[in-house]
Design goal:
By secondary structure, the chain is an alpha/beta fold. The protein has twelve helices and eleven strands. It has a single domain, classed as Rossmann fold (3-Layer(aba) Sandwich), CATH 3.40.50.150. Helices cover 35% and strands 19% of the residues. The structure holds S-adenosylmethionine.
C-alpha cells in the first residue's frame, strides 16, 4: 500500500468519488470504500449481531435472508489506522452459519459492479445465493422484495445510507411483514448540518421521518420521534428512550449517526442489546473501546 498517496484526498474529493478509492493497493485490484475509524464500530456491531442471529435462527425457518439496501463495494479502508475491514456484504457472507439468500442493492452502477467482481474473485464464491441489484432502494422496494419468499422466512435488512437517504415509505412497506428485522443508520449529522435546507423547500427530512412534524421538535428529540414512528408501524422491538443507543461520533464528539434497531419481536432486540453491550459500557467511549477489542 502506498501511504504517501492515501490521506491526500479532501473531504470534498472523497464525497465526489462516492467514497471509493482506487489508490490504495488491494489484492483483488478493486476500489475500496474509504472510511474513518469511527465507522469500524458499525461494522463490528453488525458482525457480532449477525453471528448471534444466525446461530439462533438457523434451521428455524425455511429461508433466512440478508438484504443490504445500501451495500457499498464490499471492502472498507480505515484511513486513520490504515487497516482494511470487510464491508457489510462481506461480513454477512463470511458468517459460519450462512443466510439462504443475500440481496445487495446499490444505486451506483460502479459500486455494484465492484462488489459483484469482489465476491466473484474472493473466497465468498458464487456458490452462494446472491443477487446484485443496481437500483434506487427507495423507489424499487417492491422489486427488491419480489426476490424473497417471505412466508416461513426471517430477514435482516441492513439500511446504511450516507445521509438521510432512506424514506419512511420503505420502512412502512417492510413493516407489512412480521419477520423482517431492521438495522437503520439515522444520519443525525446530515439532518443537523442541512436542517435549514430541509426546513424550507426540501422534502428529504420529511420523507425520512414520514411526516413533517420533526420541525416542531428539539433536535435532541428527533431520535425519539423516529422511534415513535417505528412503534406506530408495529415494531415492538425498539430500544427504550432511556436506553443507551449506538451513536457513532467524530473524535471531537459530534454525532454522525445513530444505529437504530427495529423488530416486530422482542427476541431480536435481545440479540441487538448483546451486540451493543459487547462494544459499549455506561462510561466508556465507543471509539476507544472498539480499538481495544
Ligand atoms: C454508507 S455506504 C454503504 C456502506 C456499506 N454498508 C459498508 O459496510 O461498506 C452507502 C452506499 O449506498 C449507495 N446508495 C446511495 N443512495 C442509494 C439509494 N437510493 N439506493 C441504493 N443505494 C444507494 C451508495 O452508492 C453507497 O455505496
Amino acid at each position: 500500500m502506498n501511504e504517501e498517496i492515501c490521506g491526500k484526498c479532501s473531504r470534498e474529493d472523497r464525497k465526489r468519488m462516492g467514497y471509493l478509492c482506487d489508490k490504495i493497493k488491494v489484492e483483488d485490484g478493486l476500489p475500496v470504500r474509504c472510511i474513518h475509524s469511527q465507522s469500524v464500530l458499525k461494522l463490528k456491531i453488525l458482525k457480532y449481531y449477525l453471528e448471534i442471529f444466525s446461530v439462533a435462527m438457523r434451521n428455524k425457518f425455511e429461508n433466512m435472508y440478508f438484504v443490504d439496501l445500501f451495500s457499498g463495494p464490499g471492502l472498507c479502508y480505515d484511513r486513520d489506522n490504515k487497516e482494511f475491514y470487510p464491508g457489510s456484504p462481506l461480513i454477512a457472507m463470511g458468517l459460519k452459519y450462512q443466510f439462504s439468500k443475500y440481496i445487495f442493492v446499490d444505486l451506483d452502477a460502479n459500486t455494484s459492479q465492484i462488489l459483484q467482481k469482489r465476491c466473484f474473485n474472493g473466497p465468498e464464491d458464487n456458490s452462494k445465493q446472491v443477487t446484485y441489484l443496481n437500483l434506487d432502494a427507495n423507489s424499487n422496494i417492491g422489486e427488491i422484495l419480489s426476490h424473497l419468499k417471505l412466508k416461513r422466512s426471517i430477514s435482516v435488512f441492513f439500511i446504511d445510507p450516507n445521509g438521510l437517504d432512506i424514506e419512511f415509505d420503505v420502512i412502512k412497506k417492510l413493516s407489512e411483514s412480521d419477520s423482517i428485522d431492521l438495522i437503520i443508520n439515522f444520519s443525525i449529522f446530515d439532518l443537523k448540518r442541512n436542517e435549514h435546507i430541509y426546513r424550507d423547500d426540501n422534502s428529504k427530512a420529511d420523507k425520512f421521518f414520514g411526516l413533517p412534524d420533526w420541525r416542531n421538535e428539539e433536535s435532541r428529540d428527533w431520535l425519539r420521534l423516529y422511534k415513535r414512528q417505528l412503534g406506530r408501524l408495529g415494531f415492538a422491538g425498539v430500544e427504550g428512550n432511556n436506553e443507551r443507543h449506538i451513536t457513532v461520533k467524530t473524535p471531537t464528539g459530534a454525532s454522525i449517526y445513530h444505529l437504530i434497531y427495529a423488530s416486530k419481536k422482542e427476541l431480536g432486540l435481545q440479540f441487538w442489546r448483546s451486540a451493543k453491550n459487547k462494544f459499549s459500557g455506561p462510561s466508556i467511549d465507543f471509539v476507544d473501546q472498539i480499538r481495544k477489542k
